[in-house]
Amino acid sequence: MQGENGGRGELADFLRSRRAQVRPDDVGLVSHGPRRVPGLRREELAQLAGVSPIYYTRLEQGQSTNASESVIDAIARALALTDDERAYLHELARPRPAKRWRAQRPESARRGVEQLITAMRDVPALVLGRHTEVLAWNELGHLLFAGHYDRTAPSRPADRPNLTRMLFLDPHTRELYRRWNEEASRSVASLRMTAGRYTDDAALTALVGELIVKSPEFAACWAKHPVQVCTAGTKYLHHPVVGDLELDYEALHLPEDDGHRLLTYTPAPGSSHEAALQLLKVSTRSVVDVWRRPVAADHAG
């Protein structure tokens, strides 16, 4: 994934994965002879997009980095890409000039943003960095998602929780999500979008490599090349203290183009989920104790 060659590999993998999902008869093409791979051949996609097979092959192999927007859009239409997938294809096919990453101070949430989420006493809130690491959380956000972590962990770069790593490798977090498979797929799709935008980010490459090695489920999902911008939706949780929760989330991208996001979680007004969240707010000590209990054997793998 890292650097120019990594970006080319991502482009090839993405286009191959999407070609494999389109059957010739779905787009009015007549299939002649046996096929070694499912879906469209390169020359068939080129025909649908109105470009030469040689040009398309060069593009897929990363040998052409100056494709026009109209050509990329034509390929996206031929593959019936979603809006998010189309944006991702533009990022890969016309990459931004690679930056020379220098050693920098660890990322941190802006003081004003930390003050904002601290003042949100009735709403769980987190500030995430580009690599889905928790840069800050308020008390309710901590109790909701990671009571087994030290409250001050986000202030220490070496100890920061990472939501993607927790989702796939932490059994406590796995127990938290009632729809774990849905959450896992959404998490990988969002990380793919980030990876497409920051192809030269070594820390992001390291995170993906770690998860591929340590989690077969992550590796399998990553190989499918899902792509989605996740800005809103519903979390279906089973909290160890207050039970089932349904919370609407909003992911707000903060300015300055550093990849930081502010996440908030709210229940429907007057619902049992609102009452459960209020109970969580006054159960600090018991929440931490329950979060830190051993995980049942059938969830530990």
Describe the protein in words.
The protein is of the alpha+beta class and 301 residues long. 47% of the residues lie in helices and 11% in strands. A five-stranded antiparallel β-sheet has the order 2-1-5-4-3, sandwiched between helices. The chain is elongated and about 65 Å long.
Helix count from the secondary structure assignment: 14
The biggest beta sheet is recorded as: 5 strands, antiparallel
Q: What is the residue-averaged pLDDT? A: 86
Return the string of H and E elements.
Answer: HHHHHHEEHHHHHHEEEHH
Strand content: 5-15%
For the record, give the distance between the C-alpha atoms at the N and C termini, rounded to a whole number.
28 Å
* Multimeric organization: single chain
Order of strands across the main sheet: 2-1-5-4-3
The residue ranges in which pLDDT falls below 50 over 5 or more consecutive positions are 1-5, 297-301
How many E-type strands?
5
Give the helix/strand class.
alpha+beta
> What is the CA-based Rg, rounded?
22 Å
Measured as a percent range, the helix fraction is: 40-55%
Principal-axis shape: elongated
What keyword list fits this structure?
disordered C terminus; alpha+beta; disordered N terminus; 47% helix; five-stranded antiparallel sheet; 14 helices; 5 strands; 301 residues
